[in-house]
Structures are given as C-alpha cells and as structure tokens.
Design goal:
Elements: H1 58-63, H2 67-78, E1 85-90, E2 95-102, H3 111-127, E3 131-140, E4 159-166, E5 172-181, E6 184-187, H4 195-202, E7 215-219, E8 223-225, E9 231-235, H5 241-248, H6 250-255, H7 258-270, H8 279-282, E10 283-284, E11 287-293, E12 298-304, E13 309-313, E14 316-320, E15 328-334, E16 338-344, H9 347-356, E17 359-373, E18 391-394, E19 403-418, E20 424-434, E21 443-450, E22 464-475
Parallel strand pairs: 2-7, 9-14, 16-22, 17-21
Antiparallel strand pairs: 1-2, 1-3, 3-4, 4-5, 5-6, 8-9, 10-11, 11-12, 13-17, 14-15, 15-16, 17-22, 18-19, 19-20, 19-22, 20-21
C-alpha cells in the first residue's frame, strides 16, 4: 500500500525530479615535434577537475530511519485521526512503533499527556542504553515558525511535529507543515530538506498488512472509591452533542447554528445588564435551558421539567474531566430494585451532596433521541411477551451517556414548543418504562421528543412505542 493511496490531493512540489549527470571532458593528446632529425613522442600532463562529493544532510540521514512512521502519521490524518505516535530504534537498528490504546470509550490521554509520557519513557530507555534513538510524532501549531505546541482546538492544526533524540546528540524537533484547502490537505515539505529528500519521504511505501505498532499500552480511566463507598470514575471525552441533538432535532442540529443561540443565552446570563428578559430564552413549557455559571466554566444544559421522584442510592459517579468535573453521570439502584443512571443536571451545584450522601430522592426525566411505534412483542429468541410488556436496556451505541433503548407504553402526551419564537416543535411524553401491577408510576417518566426525531406521525394514548432516550436527573427539592 503506497502513501499516495491515502492522498486526496497531491502537492505539485512532490513530483520526482531527475538531474542528468554531466560527463567530464578529457583534453586531447598533443604531439610536440622538435627541430631535430629524431622525433620523440611525449605524453602531455593531464589535469583532472576535482569531483565534488554531494553534501550529506546528517539530520535527514537520521530522520529517514523513521520514514515509515512519518508516512503513517500522514495516512492517519487523511483518515481523520490525529493521535500522537512514536517509534524507537533498537540496538540492532530495527525500528518499532509504540502507541497508547484507548481501552474504553470514556477516557483518552490528551495529546500533551501522551507526548509527555512517551518522552519520559523513551528518555529513560535511551539513558539506560536500551535503545539508540526515538521519535514522537504529533499534530501541532508548527508552520515553519518554531512553534511545536500541540494542536488542540480547530484552527491550531498547522503541521506534524517530529520530536526526536539520538544517542550522543541533543534533542531536536522539526516539522512538516500542511494547509487545508477545500477539505483537502496539502503538505508543504520539510523546509530544511532538499526537494529530492522530501520526495523520498513522501513517496515512501507502507507495506500492506504489516503491524507497525508492535508495542502498545492501554489507557484506563482513573477510578477511586471515596469514604462514602461511592466509586468515582473519570471521563474526558464526553459532551452534550447528542443531548442537544435530541432537543433541536438531529437534522436541524446539523444544518442550523444553534450554537450561536446558546452562546447568546450564556452571554446574556453572565451580563449584569440584561437588556431582554432572559426567561424568554430559557424557560419553555416542559423544558428549561439551565445556565451554570462558575469562575472556571459556563455551561448551558437542557432540563426536562418533572415532579416524578425516585428513592435512589448512588453507587458510582462518572465525572467529566473535560468539563472541569462539573458534569457527571450518576448510577445506582432506584426503589431498591432496578438500576438506573442519569445525567445529573444539578451536578455543578450539588457535587458534594452526590459525593457524600448515597441515599437521595431524585427527579428523573428524559430526552428521547428516537421514537417509533412498537408492533412486535416477540423477543429475538422467539419468546412471546404480553401486550403490557415494557422494558429499557443500556444503549450499545452510546454507553456511558445514560442512554437506553426502550419499549414503553405511552401513558399521556402534550405538544410543546421551544425557543422564544416557538420554532422547535415537540411533545412532552409520559412513558411507562416498567410495568408494575401494584404501582402504575413504578417507573413512569416525563420525556421530551422533538417531532423531527419521530418515525411515526400520530400519537395515541396507551400505544406501545420504542426508541432510544437519555435519562437525566437532579436532587429533589
């Protein structure tokens, strides 16, 4: 598999260039005749022009050892992956790759963490004489400007930085800058390398089917148990994109700039001089947009209004580090029988209570992501279920987001509209998720569904519906 199999656009400067080798001209033999009867042949002295040896680029000769991994980084970028990579040279000259592997979808090392840990690992091995050299490759703000700061946010991605260290030499860095043009990537080449040297790198071939990363290390989410016996797990990749997609509608959320609207709401909430009534932008029938303002971070979350209350015991909390631990998924048994976990809309203000008070009364509601009519009462194994069968199971597509697939009875519903212009249309549904003959509201929640996310046109009280939802909750007042 060649590297150009991955390219969407090829830089013209990467074409091969061939330079003809000039032949040296030898002087002709000359015959000198003396004015004597005897003629003597003499061979003239021939002066040869010195041959200039091509100058060797020592840095290029070092770096070319890692051509496989330079090309691999490029190939991953063209697939939309920006993970830092590394490789090292063994004493026998063989080069092998190393990478951190995510073991669960909830936690990953930040680029800076990965780079730092790789450097510490390889520096130790280099000093101990276990390896001859190493290279760490990552995306950075490098644009032939010496700035090798890791790229984190959109607009910062300017080049692939190469941080390397060879035994007996100083640490060094170089970079391969690139530009985005019409959703394509164009690589500018290494400034300190010649045209031919850049060509050799960019035309380097990867071997299809070869394992380039013989060494990996799993990244597990940090986990502790506090004095209250509650397990605290960390997450650093989760966000509210799916939640807001449930509120605004999947298709509309992709095409309309609701982010601008939400930013305006936050700015209005933060302002001490509110020129308009903020409630018109945050309070709607059945749903509120809750603003959480702290010195470190300002957040806005949708909250489905409800009076439904459950007795709940907190067993575990998954805190979102990327939200400065101000958001979390809380899990445990409800009514001492069935397990639930929910996105805590009040976690920022009630974090200490969740951490220290396992037994709580909580209001639980939901945001429906998909809604359809349920007609088949048979389970996948052929078992026939009763007509009043209801259930909910953890989502396989969105684990760790408090999302569930469900079959429910639609107890009641009413129309509602969100935003100050009423442009977001939906329903507040009352969904029975567990059927209990002794308690009609054993687990029956209020949930919002955007009309765009419905695969049925008509709702009827008592009908069976199926789909996916995200549970949310807060400590009851």
């Amino acid at each position: 598999m060649g590297i150009f199999d991955f390219f969407k656009k090829k830089n013209n400067s990467q074409e091969n260039v061939s330079t003809p080798v000039q032949e040296m001209e030898m002087p002709e033999e000359k015959i000198v005749e003396e004015t004597v009867e005897e003629v003597t042949e003499t061979i003239p002295e021939i002066t040869l022009q010195p041959v200039t040896e091509p100058k060797v680029n020592e840095e290029y000769e070092k770096i070319r050892v890692y051509n496989d991994y330079i090309v691999y980084s490029i190939a991953l970028q063209l697939r939309g992956e920006y993970t830092p990579l590394s490789a090292f040279e063994k004493e026998n000259g063989e080069v092998e790759g190393f990478a951190y592997m995510v073991t669960e979808d909830a936690y990953a090392l930040s680029p800076q963490q990965a780079i730092t840990q790789m450097e510490e690992k390889f520096e130790s091995e280099l000093q101990e004489g276990k390896i001859k050299s190493y290279m760490i490759l990552y995306h950075s703000q490098f644009d032939n400007n010496g700035n090798h700061t890791p790229a984190i946010q959109e607009g910062e991605f300017k080049g692939i930085s190469l941080a390397y260290h060879f035994a007996g030499a100083d640490k060094a860095k170089t970079g391969l800058p690139y530009i985005f043009e019409n959703q394509n990537v164009t690589y500018k080449g290494f400034a300190e390398f010649s045209h031919e040297e850049n060509n050799e790198i960019m035309n380097h071939q990867l071997v299809e089917g070869r394992n380039y990363f013989q060494h990996t290390e799993g990244v597990a989410a940090p986990e502790t148990t506090n004095e209250a016996g509650i397990i605290i797990r960390k997450s650093n990749v989760h966000n509210l994109m799916n939640t807001w997609s449930g509120i605004f509608g999947h298709q509309n959320f992709q095409t309309k700039d609701y982010g601008q609207y939400l930013n305006a709401v936050l700015m209005q909430s933060e302002s001490s001089n509110q020129s308009v009534d903020i409630k018109s932008k945050t309070e709607f029938e059945g749903v509120r947009f809750k603003t959480i303002l702290t010195e470190e971070l300002s957040i806005i979350v949708p909250e489905v209004k409800t009076d439904y209350t459950l007795d709940f015991e907190t067993r575990s909390i998954r805190e979102w580090e990327n939200a400065l631990n101000l958001q979390a998924i809380v899990a445990g048994p409800a009514r001492d029988t069935f397990g639930v976990w929910f996105f805590a809309t009040d976690y920022a203000e009630n974090r200490n209570r969740y951490m220290t008070q396992p037994h709580l009364k909580v209001n639980v509601s939901g945001i429906v992501l998909i809604l359809d009519v349920h007609t088949n009462t048979d389970l996948p194994d052929g078992t026939k279920m009763s007509e009043d069968f209801t259930t909910y199971v953890p989502s396989q597509d969105l684990p760790n987001y408090a999302c569930f697939d469900f079959i429910a009875q639609l107890v009641d519903f009413k129309e509602t509209a969100l935003l100050d212009d009423g442009s977001v249309k939906g329903y507040i549904l009352k969904l029975k998720l567990i059927t209990n003959e002794e308690n009609e509201d054993f687990f029956t929640i209020d949930a919002f569904v955007n009309k765009e996310n419905m695969r049925l046109e008509t709702l009827t009280k008592g009908m069976k519906v199926t789909g996916a939802l995200q549970l949310q909750g807060k400590i009851a007042e």
